[in-house]
Amino acid sequence: MPAVRIRRRRAVALASAAVLAGLAVPALTPATAGASAPAPEAPAAQAHAAVVADYYERAEGKTGDDLRDALNTIVSDQTKLSYSAVWDALKDTDEDPANSGNVVLLYSGVSRSKSLNGGDTGDWNREHVWAKSHGDFGTSTGPGTDIHHLRPADVQVNSVRGNKDFDNGGSAVANGGGSLTDSDSFEPRDAVKGDVARMIFYMAVRYEGTDGWPDLEPNGSVNNGSAPYIGKLDVLKAWNEQDPPDAFEQRRNDVIHESYQHNRNPFIDHPEWVESIW
């Protein structure tokens, strides 16, 4: 590896570590998980801005397909995890800042013990926000283990979501924190609608069909089945606008970058890029 790149990565790592040390994350409860939070203190914000600017240097000034291509190149430079390693990673990335022994569950907003990971009622498991059957990538190392779209979820709520596309409407999901569902779609609670959208957009930019995995893409449909598509695009774009990135989501992006995959979700750092690409 060229010395310039080594120095650059080392500088990014040091700046990112400063962010993680200095970022003040407010207490999180089931009622407020995913809610907006105050901005970090100025020094941490400045360090974070430096990390982000350096990481996206090759995307600077680009729009549309040129931006998408640049982002694919940037985020594809990542460390890949095994599916078993995802358990421990999620215990870190989704830790409840009000209780270090718990994780916050994506759809319900409940704070649950890290030790209750598994497949039984009352446990939390590894939810593929881009349903793994949409492209049939399973849990193989790659999209099936990419923690930018893997989140802790209550086993029963996760089962209700299944592989449904995302859309508005439906009936309340039991213990779902305000999530709704019908026969062909799932609507997450308001506090994480943007999180869900940005995870979908990340997957679409990261997996373009050029590295042996399907070309993932959001579309305007539900009932996409095993095709490498997920909908609905217009709804996901609206959710990105309605629920901007909060401190929990930003911290999660930083932890993945610093400690696990060493890549970022561009749409957490730059939610406005959704409109530029789609």
From TrEMBL:
InterPro entries found in the cross-reference section: Endonuclease-I, His-Me_finger_sf, TAT_signal
- Range of residues in the leader sequence: 1-35
| Alphabetical list of PROSITE patterns matching this protein | TAT (PS51318)
**Looking at the keywords, is Acetylation present?**
no
**Residue segments, region Disordered:** 166-186
Q: What keywords are assigned to this protein?
A: Hydrolase, Nuclease, Signal
What is the name listed in the Swiss-Prot or TrEMBL entry for this protein?
Answer: Ribonuclease
Natural source organism: Streptomyces tendae
